[in-house]
Design goal:
Blueprint: H1 7-10, E1 27-33, H2 41-52, E2 69-73, H3 77-83, E3 98-105, H4 109-125, E4 130-135, H5 145-149, E5 153-160, H6 171-191, E6 197-202, E7 206-210, H7 217-220, E8 233-238, E9 257-261, H8 266-276, H9 302-315, H10 320-327, H11 340-349, E10 360-365, E11 369-374, E12 383-387, E13 391-395, E14 411-416, E15 422-426, E16 431-434, H12 435-444, H13 448-456, H14 471-482, H15 495-504, H16 509-522, E17 550-552, E18 575-577, E19 594-596, H17 603-611, E20 622-623, E21 626-627, E22 633-637, E23 639-640, H18 645-665, E24 670-674, E25 693-694, H19 697-710, E26 718-722, H20 729-737, E27 742-744, H21 746-755, H22 761-782, H23 788-791, E28 797-799, H24 804-810, H25 823-837, H26 868-878
Parallel strand pairs: 22-24, 24-26, 26-27
Antiparallel strand pairs: 1-8, 1-13, 2-7, 2-8, 3-5, 3-6, 4-5, 9-10, 10-11, 11-15, 12-13, 12-14, 15-16, 17-28, 18-19, 20-21, 23-25
Helix pairs in contact: 4-6, 9-10, 11-12, 11-13, 14-17, 15-21, 15-25, 16-21, 16-22, 18-19, 18-25, 20-22, 21-22
Length: about 900
């Protein structure tokens, strides 16, 4: 039976089922009078469109309960004044003077009373006069049995414009106070475990929604059929929940948008929003921003989370068109034909917000602007029609307004939205806005080309070059991309030290022969004809790298994976290193950003990053490994004393976290987490007692990432991994998913160079890097993600055989249903690798690497489901030779 759940209840996992990973796909659109005139046409047309989109939803076993439907309209102040006795006798309320809060309250009297009390107290604290309450007329007989059993009490709270505000100047502040009041109500209801939900509370927009089919919406809510209910626009939504349990509050629209599709990056988006919260600031909010936390409310769907962030941006001063372009913009990275001003707009905002990526069609409105947008892939349909009577219709499919009888209005224009494109109506000015006009206006609002150039140069100097990179900025980026020859970190290990390092970091003979050598020779990730029939790492009899305890997640069935070859234009691997500006900042942020076309760094590229700032004009002072006033780089050694076991590893990780926070507080903007021992620590531990055992790079990076988040410093610096134990695509994907913005697989590069024919080392390394980049694109595409910026820090893996204490401390939010090993076992395996690396070398100065048979069967190696003994036994049974 369906019930009205609180967000806290919605997020409770049951066994192996976790609702946090559920999504939805639906029918969506809007109707607007292009002249901005409020009337009945837009709402009537939207209701008719919903009726024609009923097939986009689903119904329950009672044949009546649907996944949900709703509309988002303007606030008809005249209707409410006429329909609410508490407002009778008052002077006529104009547009923007009346705010209507829609509340879903508990059905029992005590719960309803408590919910009203919370609203009244919150409004009073914000200085918002409560003008009265209104029980919303409803027709429960319209509902199915399941929906009726879960039906909340639906009421309207009517609030007036505060005496200290005047329109139009005070309209935005009115909306901000209403949001603060709503968040207080939601927070207190959650604390009290009160089943209360606020679909909307605004003086500009109003939501009617429920657990019913779109065609029944007006019958359930008689308000919508009242001729006095007038609006210039109506956003509509018919929900189809692919694998979510339908509830009243998950019906759409939400406060500003309605969404059709899935947001594959939502886990990473939510995590980065939480990391941003400590640094958020805005003159519009002052010290009140803390009252909005958490920005993304727990327990919401992916659509609800996007709506939370869109609402924050709009209430903080951005119009919905700019906010939507920031969140769900077009693919711009690989387009040579894109207008340079528009490119600068996207480039400036890229470090502020990663794309909310996935197949999405959005309809949105804030009462002043109504519009629709597609994601950068364009994998959801959005058709539009402009009629001769000034009605714009955008919907998930064509023909939603074909009348049952009579002639339709003449169509002046019809078409579809392309990938990443928008269409909108400026209701205040009565104008139709097309995508190129919208982006042209957005790009012209600020000097984005100059800001991007200044940000990639020394931010303290600024630039007026109209977007050209300065010589100083170019020297940093070029040093990273091309390397800085002659630096100490570029020196290749000798044959003896290379073999020792390979054993220290867990390489096997198979890794060299079957993985690295083909990648260096062919430039592609290695592919085999058979699947993986080896046991999971936690059940293996052989020592396995920490990365083997993780499995990649895939996009859900309603979302096709991206083809990274045919759809290369929408995909991007570029990353930016350095401090991120605050999401609500309006202007050039201080500090440098180093833009990289790929997150894969060669040893020479990493040396360029360390040495890049010294190559600029202002290089008299340095901080850490980099320069003051520009790219300030600090290296954090990730080494520990393996003799101390798990306790020593835990202490090393805690010290690493503390060192990261101290470095950022000292001005570091890039932290290189390195498990590469300095040359003077490459001696056997019997000779050198300094901590020399590498911490697994994945564990070290995740610890630093989590430590910075906990300290509220994550956006002040970026993390780079110098990882000896990262040489495959899977290894790099994990490091990027758990906090690293770039990875230098230095030992993999050295191994590829050593295996290449004489004179081919540089080319082999380039092919190896190309293979890693190609593999990363495949990883992104299987999740339906287009950009590395959206994948970075997302944690889109599950753990198999990793203990809960390790997951909670360093990989929070990662599913690990089986439990498993802890820091003691991880430290023991690291110690075993260290001891193996200290064994005497053999044969021409090289020590033989173990051949553990992870890929191909070896008699003394890993067990396989299709081992020769198993196959022979099956053949014997099939041949009838008796007991095998």
């Amino acid at each position: 039976m369906l019930t009205t759940r609180t967000p806290r209840e919605d997020q409770t996992p049951t066994g192996l089922y976790d609702p946090a990973y559920e999504h939805d796909a639906c029918g969506v659109g809007f109707v607007a009078d292009v002249t901005g005139t409020a009337g009945r046409r837009a709402l009537a047309a939207a209701l008719r469109a919903l009726d024609n989109l009923v097939h986009r939803g689903a119904v329950g076993a009672d044949a009546r309960t649907s996944d949900g439907a709703g509309v988002l309209t303007g606030v008809p102040a005249g209707f409410f004044q006429a329909a609410t006795p508490a407002l009778a006798g008052r002077p006529a309320l104009g547009d923007g003077e009346l705010a209507v809060g829609v509340l879903f309250l508990p059905s029992e009297p005590a719960g309803r009373a408590r919910g009203r009390a919370l609203v009244e107290a919150a409004l009073a604290r914000q200085g918002l006069p409560l003008l009265g309450w209104r029980d919303v007329p409803v027709a429960p007989e319209i509902l199915g049995a399941q929906a009726r059993a879960a039906q909340p009490a639906i009421v309207h709270a009517l609030a007036g414009l505060p005496a200290d505000l005047a329109l139009p100047a005070g309209a935005d502040e009115f909306e901000r106070r209403l949001l603060l009041a709503r968040r207080e109500v939601e927070r207190r209801a959650l604390d009290e475990d009160l089943a209360l939900y606020v679909p909307s509370f605004s003086a500009r927009t109003l939501v009617y929604k429920g657990l019913l089919a779109g065609g029944d919406l007006a019958a359930f809510y008689p308000d919508l059929a009242d001729p006095r209910y007038v609006t210039a626009f109506a956003v509509f939504h018919q929900r189809y929940s692919t694998n979510t349990l339908p509830t009243w509050q998950l019906a759409q629209p939400f406060r500003l948008l309605a969404h059709n599709g899935e947001i594959n990056t939502v886990q990473g988006n939510r995590r980065w929003m939480a990391a941003r919260e400590p640094g958020l600031s805005s003159p519009a909010w002052g010290d009140r921003l803390a009252d909005l936390r958490p920005i993304v409310q727990p327990g919401g769907s992916d659509s609800a989370s996007l709506d939370n962030v869109l609402e924050l941006l709009v209430r903080s001063g951005r119009d919905p068109l700019e906010a939507t372009a920031l969140l769900v913009g077009e693919a711009w990275e690989g387009r040579a034909d894109l207008d340079p001003h528009r490119r600068a707009f996207y480039a400036y905002h890229a470090p502020l917000m990663e794309p909310w990526d996935g197949p999405a069609a959005l309809a949105f409105a804030d009462g002043r602007v109504v519009g629709a947008a597609l994601d950068r892939n364009g994998l959801r349909p959005a058709r539009y029609r402009l009629t001769a009577d000034d009605l714009l219709v955008v919907a998930s499919e064509a023909g939603v307004l074909e009348p049952a009888g009579g002639e339709p209005a003449a169509v002046l224009e019809a078409g579809r939205l392309g990938p990443g494109r928008m269409i909108a109506v400026d209701l205040a000015r009565g104008r139709l806005l097309r995508h190129d006009d919208i982006l042209g206006d957005l790009a012209a609002r600020r000097p984005y080309r100059a800001w991007v150039a200044a940000r990639e140069a020394d931010g303290s100097k600024g630039t007026e070059d109209g977007g050209r990179r300065t010589e100083e900025a170019a020297s940093v980026g070029d040093a990273v991309s091309n390397g800085a020859a002659g630096t100490a970190v570029c020196r290749l290990p000798s044959a003896v030290s290379l073999a020792r390092e390979q054993r220290r970091h867990g390489y096997t003979a198979e890794d060299l022969r079957l993985v690295l050598t083909p990648m260096g020779a062919e430039g592609h990730d290695a592919v085999w004809s058979m699947g993986d029939d080896a046991p999971p790492a936690v059940l293996s009899a052989q020592p396995r790298p920490l990365a083997d305890y993780f499995r990649q997640r895939f996009a859900q069935v309603t979302n096709p994976p991206i083809d990274p070859l045919r759809e290369r234009l929408v995909m991007a691997l570029d990353v930016a290193l350095g401090p991120r500006a605050g999401l609500l900042d309006d202007g050039l942020a201080p500090g440098w950003l180093v833009h990289l076309p790929s997150p894969v760094l060669t040893p020479a590229g990493l040396a360029g990053l360390r040495d890049g700032r010294r190559r600029t004009a202002d290089s008299s002072k340095t901080t850490g490994d980099g320069g003051e006033g520009g790219v300030q780089v600090v290296t954090l050694p990730a080494l520990f004393d393996a003799d101390g076991g798990g306790e020593s590893l835990a202490s090393a990780l805690a010290a690493l976290q503390a060192a990261g926070v101290r470095a950022v507080d000292g001005g570091a903007t890039i932290l290189i987490v390195s498990n590469r021992a300095p040359d003077d620590q490459l001696l056997p531990s019997a000779v050198c007692r300094l901590p020399s055992t590498p911490v697994p790079a994945l564990l070290a990076v995740a610890a630093v990432h989590r430590g910075l988040i906990a300290a509220g410093r994550r956006l002040a610096a970026e993390v780079v991994a110098e990882a000896g134990d990262a040489w495959t695509v899977h290894h790099l994907a994990l490091l990027l998913a758990y906090g690293a913005a770039a990875v230098c697989p230095w030992l993999g590069c050295a191994s590829v160079r050593a295996a290449a024919p004489d004179g081919d080392g540089d080319a082999a390394e380039r092919r190896y890097v190309a293979a890693l980049e190609e593999g990363l694109l495949k990883v992104l595409s299987k999740m339906g993600i287009s950009t590395m910026r959206s994948y970075h820090g997302s944690g889109l893996f599950e753990a198999l055989g990793l203990g809960r204490e390790v997951v909670d401390a360093y990989f929070p939010g990662t599913p690990s249903p089986l439990g498993g090993i802890g820091l003691a076992e991880i430290a023991a395996e690291a110690r075993a690798r260290q001891e193996a690396s200290e064994a005497p070398a053999g044969g021409k100065g090289r020590a033989a690497l173990p051949d553990r048979g992870f890929v191909r069967f070896r008699r003394d190696g890993e067990r396989h489901a299709y081992a020769p003994t198993v196959v022979r036994a099956l053949q014997a049974v099939a041949a009838g030779d008796g007991d095998p």
